[in-house]
Specification:
Shape: globular
Bound molecules: phenylalanine
Strand content: under 5%
Number of helices: 19
CATH superfamily: Amino acid/polyamine transporter I
Distance between the termini: 44 Å
Length: 430
């Protein structure tokens, strides 16, 4: 369970959620996001948990177990998504390691904003990406109980404490109330567009680790006494809480230093350009708080990266009979190499992120909802196991059959052409 929470809580919460909210209607976006999570995210999460625990196998085998050979290819798509996401996710995680070290050793100074380019692109970025991948591979190679579960057991409470502590500290700053206003000033007209719905859905799937078999894989290690509906609520609830709290940290800090006009329009801007500048202006406090902040990011990124690699590794163990260590090492190496283009170019990274989110995760979620909603035998019976007496999920199958596919088709019709354009733009060099 904690490992699943660790998968969900990651860079997506800290790096993107608060930024998206401030851009798209503040509290209105938070409400929209909550709605999308409850009506679309949660049903898909429960679907993944049901398939994973029911089959007790990794994604490819699990889909085959319940759906026959026709559904195997979807498992391969999941594994491919794990490959793709981890390749660039680890590059961003590498930046956070670098920033944490910079903060600790007094490297946040007036030039930090200008140095983002050097840090984010090139050999340095690749080096820190390799370092981060090496740690991820190490944990996954050790195994599920001794590696993954133990890591989550220590790191997740730590992350939670760090974020709460930082939010309390941020509340004492001079600019706090302006920061909150900027983050949450409400504009309901903003959220009435397909574009913003697409953004919210993409963010929900990414943040909850849905649509690529991560939750499915962790659920395959669960016993039949586990209460799946409650588990899905706990995972989604913690994920939303941390995302919301991260905004309460980021914006007061930015406003305390009067840097609000520098929240640039790139998603990485708020976190990797403006915030370090704020820390640079805060003297010793900035050093300590900056270190703690980026350390929290590293922790979140690590537990998420572990889950991404575990999807790929468990599939190779099941499919090719490789021992765990070999699978972790070889797959980790392949993913590290695939990350090289993202380490050398922010533009490539951005396109990989688009493709992963808009095509793989939303598309994977759609396929999974159709599978569990329409073809799987008695999924409700499987949910009931271990959840006797829990009733709130009675609408689950209906949501999965009608609401989830409808919403996902609606946003995919927008997201796919959009992704295509960004891909063509990259390849034609505009
Ligand atoms: N949920 C993770 C985050 O918010 C990212 C992730 C996506 C992890 C998909 C696993 C699978 O950072």
């Amino acid at each position: 369970m904690l490992a699943a929470v660790g998968s969900a809580v990651g860079l997506g919460n800290m790096w993107r959620f608060s930024y998206l909210a401030s851009e798209h209607g503040g509290a209105a976006f938070v409400v929209l996001y909550l709605g999308v999570t409850l009506l679309v995210g949660l049903p898909v999460m429960l679907a993944e948990l049901v398939v994973g625990r029911g089959a007790q196998r990794s994604p490819i085998g699990a889909l085959e177990h319940f759906g026959g050979p026709a559904w195997r290819p979807l498992g391969f798509v999941f594994v491919a998504a794990g490959f793709l996401i981890l390749a660039y996710y680890s590059v961003i995680a590498g930046w956070t390691v670098r920033y944490a070290l910079l903060a600790l050793f007094g490297g946040f100074d007036a030039t930090i904003a200008q140095r983002f380019g050097e840090i984010a692109e090139g050999a340095d970025a690749f080096g820190f990406h390799l370092l981060f991948m090496a740690v991820t591979v190490g944990v996954v190679a050790i195994g599920v109980t001794r590696g993954i579960e133990r890591t989550a057991l220590v790191l997740m409470p730590l992350l939670f404490l760090l974020v709460c502590g930082l939010a309390l500290y941020a509340a004492t700053l001079r600019g706090a109330s302006e920061g909150y206003t900027y983050y949450l000033s409400t504009d309901f007209s903003e959220i009435l567009s397909r574009e913003v719905l697409t953004v919210a859905a993409g963010q929900a799937f990414f943040s909850l680790s849905l649509g690529m078999g991560a939750m499915l894989t962790f659920a395959s290690y669960l016993g039949r006494d586990q209460n799946l509906p409650n588990a899905s609520l706990v995972i989604a609830g913690s994920d939303m809480l941390i995302a919301f709290l991260a905004g309460l940290v980021v914006f007061p800090l930015i406003f305390a230093l009067g840097l609000s006009d520098q929240v640039s329009d790139s998603t990485v801007g708020a976190l990797f350009i403006t915030l370090p500048q704020a820390f640079a202006g805060m003297g010793l406090a900035g050093r300590v708080v900056g270190f703690l902040f980026f350390a929290a990011l590293v922790v979140g990124a690590l537990t998420s990266a572990i889950s991404l690699l575990e999807v790929v590794v468990s599939a190779t163990i099941d499919g090719w009979g490789w021992p765990r260590r070999r699978a972790a090492l070889r797959m980790g190496l392949a993913i590290a190499l695939l990350g090289a283009p993202a380490a050398w170019s922010l533009e490539v990274l951005d396109v990989m992120d688009h493709v992963a989110n808009n095509v793989f995760l939303l598309g994977g979620g759609l396929a999974l909802s159709l599978f569990v909603g329409w073809t799987m035998d008695d999924p409700v019976g499987e949910v009931r196991v271990g959840a006797e007496g829990v009733r709130w999920f009675f609408l689950w199958r209906t949501l999965l059959r009608f609401v989830v596919p409808a919403v996902l088709l609606f946003v995919l019709a927008d997201a796919i052409p959009d992704t295509w354009r960004s891909l063509v733009g990259l390849l034609s060099g505009d």
